[in-house]
Structures are given as C-alpha cells and as structure tokens.
Design brief:
By secondary structure, the chain is an alpha+beta fold. The chain is 27% helix and 29% strand. It has 15 helices and 31 strands. Strands 3, 7, 8, 9, 10, 11, 12, 21 and 24 form a nine-stranded mixed β-sheet that branches. Strand 5 and strand 6 form a beta hairpin. It starts with 20 loop residues before the first helix and ends with a helix. The chain binds one RNA strand through helix 13 and helix 14.
Length: 568
RNA sequence: CGGGAUGUGGCGCAGUUUGGUUAGCGCGCAGCGUUCGGGACGCUGAGGCCCCGGGUUCAAAUCCCGGCAUCCCGACCA
C-alpha cells in the first residue's frame, strides 16, 4: 500500500477522551475513531489488525475441530424469554423493534440462537459431538464503556458452542478449546495467564479465564510464581491456617466504643491494629442469620460463602434484613452472637490468641475473645479474599496478585440451555437426554487493546509480526539532490519486488519531510522499517530497523528482497 | 444510578471568574516560495449553529434554568 493514498491521518496530540496508552495510540495511529460512547469505526490499519487476529482465531478453531458459522445479530427477543435471560440481561441488551413492533435483541451472545439451531437439526447421539463458532459483532450496553475497544458496547467476539452427549465428551471439547486458546494468545504476542474462574453449577474445574497481564487491566487475579496455580480473586483460595494450641488468656473484657461500627475507628480507639480485630459479617442464608468470621484486615469472599452453603440461597444481610431483626446489634456483632443460626469462620481466625470483637450489644467491643473458650465456629473454610503473600493452596509459596485484561473465557455450561430450549438427543437405548454444552469466548477487538498495552513505547505501537497491518514499512527519502531519482527507482523496485514475493509492505512515498516519515513509522508500528535514502544507496545499502527492539543494520540493495521475503 | 469534570473550526487548547470591537493560539488543511536523514520555515488563505433549547440584558461563548453528549471515580457486569 502506498501511504500517499492510504486513508490515514495520524495525530500528534493524545485524544482528549482517552485515558490509557492503548486507546491513545490506536486513535493517534489512525486505527480507530469514536462514533459514540463505546462504539468505534475501524479504519484501514485497525481493520487489518482486526482481520489478522480474527484469522488466527479462525485457524486455531478450525484446527481444533470447530466449524465456522455466522449467526444473526438481530435475535427475536422471544428466544431470550424462553431461556429466561431476557430479564437476566435487562438493560445490558440493546433492543430494537421491527415495523410490526416485534422486539429483537442485538446479540450480546448467541447461546439461545445456536442451541435452537442445533436442536432443530440434530437429535441422535450419532450426531454428537459438534462445535459451532462464529466471529461476529456483539452488543452490550455497558454501564460504563471504557478505555476504547477494551470495554466497548459494540465489539468483535469469537463465540464457540460445543454440544456433547455427556460430561466426558464435554471435557474433551473443553480441553480442545483450552489448548486452542493458548495457541491463539501466543500467536497474538500476548502474555496470558489462564486463571480459574468462579465455578459454575456443575462444580469442579469448569471455567477458566485468560488474562492478558496488564497494569490497567480491570480484573485482579491471584497467581503463584512457583507453580501453575492461578485464579481470579473470587475463585482464589489459599492454604488454610493450621490449628494451634492457645495458652491461657486473660479474661474477656468489655470496652465502650460508641459510634464505631468501623474496624479502623475501633482499632485506633483501642490502640491496636485491624488484623487483631475480628469481623462478623451477617449473611442471609435461606432466611437464617449466618455469621462469617474474618480478621479485620481481610474482606469476606462472598462467592466462597455461597459455595460453602450451596445450593442454599446466600446473600449479604440487607438493610431490610436488619430492619426485620432489631435484636441484631449491627456493627457490634460478636462471634458468639446468640441470635445466629450458624457461624462459619475463615481459618485465619486461628491465628490470633485473643480477638477484639463486637460485644453483641450496641457501642461496645470485647477484648481477649478467645477461640474455643468464648466462641466455637460450627464450620471452617477459606472464606476470606486472598491477599498478596498468602500461601499458595497447591505449593505453599507466597501468592501474588496482578491485574489483567480478560481476553478469553472457556466455560462448561452443562444442560441449562439445552433443557430450556429443547436441545435433546436420543441415545442407543432410545432414551432422550439434554445435550451437554460448553461455551468459549474470545474478545477479538479487545485483544487489540491488550496487544498495544503490551507492545508499545513512548513513540508508538510495535505490532507483533503476526498481527501487524503490514510486515514492512518502507520509508523512501529521495531528498532533492542528484540521487533523488535513483532513490525513487530503488525504493519502488523494492516495493514491487517485495509485493511480488507476497510480503505486505506499507510504502511511504509521501512528499513530506523525513522527520514526519520516521515519526509515523514508529507510531504505526510495523515490525520492520526499511529506509531507502541517498546516503545508504550511495554505498549500495538500505537500512533496516526492528521496531520492537530498535536494532538497526544494513542490507545490500541487491539482496534486500530475498532477505526480507524469507523472514516474511 | 451516585460523585466529579468537560463541551469553542478536523485534532489539542485559551478566552467564561468580572457580559461589551471583527472569538484567538498550536497542529492539521489549501496556494506560493525556501528546505529535505528524526514531527523544517516564511508569506497568503479557507474553515466556527462557541453542544442544544429557553430565559435575563441595549448587548451572552461568558449570567440563569432545563436538556443532551463525552470522560473520570464508584456501583454494576463477563
């Protein structure tokens, strides 16, 4: 492509509405332009990257045995009512009406459509397994779109859906997708950790997220440097604190702590620290009051509590719940509160010999509240949110917490949709069963943001070769001297020659100053920059710069095409 | 939805507090000339519903009321 005719305007200044580097650079490099909040036009350069990433995804999906389809974006809302997700998605879904005033959802995802499709075509165990995918635009009316394509309301996503006869089949489909995902992210040049996500209804290791490591990532995850343990913060756990013998302690003692329901205020008032205080958090479990005990410097992991009581419904005590139970001294509940139906404690409650806790009456806390003597939890579990330095549950080494961009998610769905939408098959014995499903997503447009976050510097983007819009950025510097014509000829010959050899070349043939050309080449970020100028040409060479590393060397003009084509 | 901020040529901004010539600067764009290996320079020029609607006033980018849009923090969500 000749830059003189490329639809491109690079920007010198950061756009006012961009906060993070990837968003700023994608706009400055002319890859995207905002049309509305969270909705973007993809310009030629950005679109080429999008296409390259999509192609990588397509190749790996095909390789893994999935079959590409294209499912509608406009989906009858009735389908969503059948699955019950109309309400679940709520205002997250864009809804449109046709001329007959029928409602349609603009696909936030496609479980309903694909399940209905498979249900209509397949009905025998002989048909299974099957795995269908598409790469298509998705619509989610996010409360807060952010960071350009990172959290957009319109975004390109690969979604795959597997249908199996049983759980063993599902596991095989899932494993194949998982392996394909690793390849996809490697080819995109991303540093990705697969982290265990909150378990679904099936239980077990049924959901993994793929996090591209990035400081600006919206999700925190826990991981171990020594082994391969990794989990998102909701699913993360840690090695339990062991039981220990507690020597005799001074008697329990009550102190006046008026208007101090908060941990920090109490700690300061009593001249102690938050980790020596105990929180007793009230949960409503199937209508009963349940106390969850954690040290004052830790948060309760609500998902862990839910997991501990599954399948009973669990929620944090609400204002209404407290209003219905005036006997509960909100903010001053102790671990031995008589009104609690059940007490569950995090194992870190074993760490201190004597706790400061609520006194079970307003405006008072007790000191020297001792495990075994003053209170005895019915149940122990790891219900506290993991903190950096906690021990890894599999190897015991310190855990770390980092942030990441969720670029993929694989999930074992089970029969939720196949039951709701009638996707059943007949087995050898003639009995009907719901198909067992998995779903697998990759955020294709989001990957672009993740790639730029990982591959950029102060001057611009440095695209990994496999996703770059062009492989070679050919900078022509004819100057005005006697050699100008020779430079133009040599550069054009190089451009034509490389294209003949199948190399994708961006040819800067513009009549602008050298400074602009170099700055744009660094901003746009093609992996290899070739400069053809009178200076080098006089010695029979062109110059090569590797964008990512800044390495420079020279290539003989005669050999340049061969050398570059081989790398391509 | 709660809190904060912003809205002025294509882009980045000043001007608004204290209403008052013809609304200004940088980049970009067009023309001419000089320059030509790391965002060159001079001259000339085009381009503005000052977010929208209403109000106050002799007079509104500027003050008041109402809306809309965009961004940030939070809540929410995969």
């Amino acid at each position: 492509m000749r830059m003189s005719s490329l639809f491109l305007r690079t920007l010198r200044d950061d756009p006012a509405d961009a906060e993070v580097d990837s968003h700023k650079l994608l706009v400055r490099a002319g890859c995207i332009r905002r049309v509305a909040s969270g909705i973007y036009s993809w310009l030629p350069l950005g679109n080429r990257v999008l296409r390259n990433v999509a192609q990588i995804v397509r190749e790996e999906m095909d390789q893994a045995g999935a079959q590409e389809t294209s499912l509608p974006i406009a989906q009858p809302l009735d389908l969503w009512k059948q699955s019950g997700r109309d309400e679940a998605y709520g205002s997250m879904m864009f809804r449109v009406q046709d001329r007959k005033e029928n409602w349609y959802a603009m696909a936030p995802t496609a479980e309903e459509v694909v399940t209905t499709l498979v249900a209509g075509e397949y009905s025998s165990y002989r048909d299974l397994p099957v795995n269908l995918y598409q790469i298509n635009w998705k619509y989610r009316d996010e409360l807060r779109p952010r960071f350009g394509p990172l959290r957009a309301r319109e975004f390109l996503m690969k979604d795959a859906y597997s249908f199996d006869a049983n759980l063993e089949g599902l596991q095989a489909s899932y494993d194949a997708m998982y392996a394909a995902y690793i390849k996809v992210f490697n080819r995109c040049g991303l540093t990705v950790r697969s982290v265990k996500a909150q378990s679904g209804e099936i239980g077990g290791d049924t959901s993994q997220e793929f996090m591209a490591v990035a400081a600006i990532g919206e999700d925190a995850f826990v991981w171990c440097e020594q082994c391969d343990y990794a989990a998102n913060t909701e699913a993360a756990t840690r090695r339990p604190t062991p039981e220990q013998a507690i020597p005799d302690q001074p008697p329990r003692e009550s102190t006046h702590t008026p208007d101090m329901p908060g941990i920090d205020a109490v700690a300061e008032h009593l001249g102690t620290t938050a980790d020596l205080l105990m929180k007793a958090i009230a949960f409503n479990v199937a209508g009963e009051l349940v106390l969850a005990l954690v040290p004052g410097d830790r948060e309760v992991n609500e998902y862990a509590v839910i997991g501990a009581f599954a399948p009973a419904p669990v929620r944090l005590y609400s204002d209404e719940d407290f209003a219905a139970r005036p006997d509960i001294p909100k903010g001053y509940i102790g671990p031995d509160f008589a009104g609690a139906a059940y007490v569950i404690a995090d194992s870190s409650i074993r760490a201190s010999h004597g706790w400061v806790t609520g006194a079970n009456r307003g405006d008072h806390h007790d000191r020297n509240v001792v495990l075994g003597r003053d209170f005895t939890p019915r149940h122990w579990a790891e219900i506290a949110v993991v903190a950096p330095g906690d021990e890894c549950p599999s190897c015991g080494n310190p855990l770390r917490i980092d942030r990441g961009i969720e670029v993929g998610h694989v999930f074992q769905l089970g029969d939720k949709y196949s039951v709701a939408l009638g996707a059943t098959y007949t087995d050898e014995a003639g009995d009907d069963h719901p198909m067992v499903m998995g779903c697998y997503g990759i955020g294709v447009s989001r990957i672009l943001s993740a790639i730029v976050e990982e591959h950029h510097d102060d001057h611009g983007i440095a695209w990994p070769a496999e996703v770059a819009p062009y492989q070679v950025h050919l900078v022509m510097l004819p100057g005005r001297g006697d050699g100008a014509l020779a430079v133009t000829d040599a550069a054009t010959a190089l451009y034509d020659g490389l294209r003949d050899r199948g190399v994708q070349v961006l040819f800067d043939d513009r009549d602008v100053s050298p400074g602009i050309k170099f700055a744009d080449a660094d901003l746009l970020g093609m992996p290899v920059q070739i400069t053809v100028g009178a200076k080098g040409l006089g010695r029979g060479v062109v110059e090569r710069k590797i964008r990512a590393t800044g390495e420079r060397d020279e290539l003989a003009v005669d050999a340049a095409i061969d050398t570059l084509a081989r790398l391509g």
